[in-house]
Design a protein that fits this description.
Layout lengths: L3 H12 L5 H23 L3 H19 L5 H6 L1 H13 L3 H38 L13 H9 L20 E12 L6 E12 L3 E5 L2 E5 L2 H6 L1 E12 L3 E11 L2 E8 L5 E7 L5 H4 L8
Antiparallel strand pairs: 1-2, 1-8, 2-5, 3-4, 5-6, 6-7, 7-8
Helix pairs in contact: 1-2, 1-3, 2-3, 2-6, 3-5
Length: 292
Amino acid sequence: MRHLNIVLISVLFFFSVSFSQDDLSLINAYSDSLNKFEQIAYDSNNIQLVEYLNECEEFLEFFTKEKNDPRLINYNVPSRIRLRNELMSAVQDIPVRTIMLKEQELYNSLVQDIAYKDLIYALKARSILADRKFFEKDDESKGTIIELWLNGAFKFTSTKLTDLQGPQYGIKNWEISARFEPIGFIVNKDWTGVLFSFGTIYNFFPILQQKNDDVKVQDTFYSKYIKRSGIKLGVGGRFEDEFIVNAGAGLQVRAFTFWSLYSFENKKVYYAVGINDLSWVKFFIPYVNIGF
């Protein structure tokens, strides 16, 4: 830890754009205190205190390089508390215990808020983007069991928990849709049916900006009005006197899908509109309680 100042200055030089001047002053004050404590630890030849201060140094270097890394949650709290508690119970030397308590006090007052400020912002931003997925209702539990499994199984749809860097904070635009949806035919308006649809949907995300400690959401034309779009395949049928099998492809926009369907009975192509989020019924009939 003798070269902490040199290392820290180098790190802050390359990454200082991520910190305000006030934050840099607080970080430097904490770093200076660590160096003073280090000298005392070496003078007293106290290996346990040196180990503890080395842990503090590793955290500070990690934090200044990876300030939005979700590992800060684990690195910042459990490891420090565990090590400090172990040393506090083992060390009886009053001056050493005093130094450890002083370091913790300085950490709490100088660094802790900085360490969590941007992390909390990133988690807020991630939540906002995640809410834009899963068909309008802003809740992953609204997806079907198949969808939840599929979207977690593939890299292009699953959330990358270790990525908290903007602009998407680990949230992917793509998701997989696999569900039944009722349809109504356009030409023959008396015809209705149901399809099992499967496809990939692209979600249009807003632009997120940091405003003080909060997240400012700026919608684009696509994120506000289109929201999501994708190509889907479907197989099912329409209800007449009997169930007539139809299959085809569709284009989803928001919660609606526009289908081109081939009828295996009369060898003709029909057009239909499907809805894949029945909670939209509440838009037209607000008092209906639909538990989807």
